[in-house]
Amino acid sequence: MPLFDVYPLYDVTPVSGKDVHVYDDKGTEYLDLYGGHAVISIGHAHKNYVDAVSQQVARLGFYSNAVQNPLQHALADKLETLSGCTAYELFLCSSGAEANENALKLASFKTGRSRVVAFRNGFHGRTSAAVAVTDNKNIIAPINAQQEVTILDLNDVEGTKAELEKGDVCAVIVEFIQGVGGLDQGSTAFFEEVDALCKANGTLFIADEVQSGYGRSGKFFAFQHYNVTPDIISIAKGMGNGFPIGGVLIHPDIEAKYGMLGTTFGGNHLACAAGLAVLETIEEENLIANANAMSAYFMEVAKSIPEVKKIKGKGLMLGLEFDFEVGDLRKTLIYKHHIFTGGASNKKVLRILPPLTLTKAHIDQFFEALKLALAPVNTTV
Predict the structure, then answer these.
(1) Is the per-residue pLDDT at 377 higher than 70?
(2) What angle do CA 149, 153, 158 make, to 5 degrees?
(3) I want to staple 83 with a disulfide (CB 3.0 to 4.6 A). Which of 15, 76, 130, 220 is the partner?
(4) Helices (H), strands (E): how many in the chain?
(5) Taking a C-beta distance cutoff of 8 angstroms, is the pair 206, 173 a contact?
(6) Beta 204-208 vs 339-340: how paired, if at all?
(7) How far is CA 254 from the centre of its chain?
(8) Model pTM?
(9) Does residue 378 register a pLDDT over 70?
């Protein structure tokens, strides 16, 4: 049976990984500066992760949410400690799209409203409501387009104010650093004024931390760079280091009711073991501090590359913007220099989303390869 052909694929077949490297079926080593869309947070095949998952699957990999699961409570407690988000409750699910779907559903339940305000170039997932609030008409089917969504420009405070004062908006959803969109960020004033506007108009403020969470921005959550208090926080990618897990942090003002939310695989024993291993490793290895140190070094070196027109992002959620589309550059980096990088809907942005274990040596390796890849072809005979 053929696979449904929806992914343009590079001709590379990874079969194993170790820390910031992956190895293909021919034994070639690749420097992984993309982490499978920012999923690999503590490095490929980290011993803590491998041991935790192996030991748990040998005991009990799965049972339903109809029984007690102490691992869920342990994960919630460790998440509270490391994130500093003490005024929230946790609902576990299986992906970022599912997290955002449930976040939007909760906002609608709480407010009794249905319209959502989202922002240009935002990406929130591919399920029903999550894709409807994503700014990409090419992936929104007619069944999704029935959702009531208003897309505004980042930093449009007046537009946001005008929409919220209509009284029918259940939620404002925002990425504090846009991922797929190309590492754009709103201003401090924008984020803080939108937070205040939500509170003044009975609208819930949703922080989409699916990609930017878990230390990637240099703080545990990207919203923590600002003086805001989201009502709901969605999380996923770096949460499980490759194991499918997502979650929603929910302010206790939103009252839980039996049957309100549900999931088959969310919060299963194996997922929680993976999630705990990630949090413990982030803490033990001071990976958020490392993300900040490596970010500063990366930006310092990037400034010396004349072809780089703009350095975007925070922490180890970074982008290099050029005055040309980077598709061919990415191919050169992967096929000639054996380095994985990412693209964005902004075709001129090269995305850098490595494991948080990145070192200066890895950064030096990347920039040496980038210089060679950017060098004009020598046509001298």
Answers:
(1) no
(2) 90
(3) 220
(4) 11, 14
(5) yes
(6) unpaired
(7) 24
(8) 0.95
(9) no
Q: What are the structure tokens assigned to 93, written together?
A: 């699910």
* Encoded amino acid at 72, one letter: Q
Which residues make Cβ contacts (< 8 Å) with residue 104, sequence separation at least 6? Answer: 116, 129, 130, 133, 170, 171, 173, 206
How many CB atoms sit inside 10 A of residue 270's CB?
A: 21
The CA angle 118-126-264, to the nearest 5 degrees, is: 115
Tell me what the pLDDT averaged over the chain comes to: 96
CB atoms under 10 Å from CB of 378, counted, come to 6
- From residue 317, give the alpha-carbon distance in Å to each of 177, 246, 257, 356: 8, 19, 36, 10
Q: The CATH number of 14-46+286-374 is which of 3.30.9.10, 3.40.1160.10, 3.90.1150.10, 3.40.50.150?
A: 3.90.1150.10
Hey, what are 212's tokens? 């930017």
What token pair was written down for 167? Answer: 């009284």
Q: Give me 197's structure tokens.
A: 């506007």
What does the DSSP assignment read for 137-170?
GGG--TTTTTS-EEEE-TT-HHHHHHHHTTS-EE
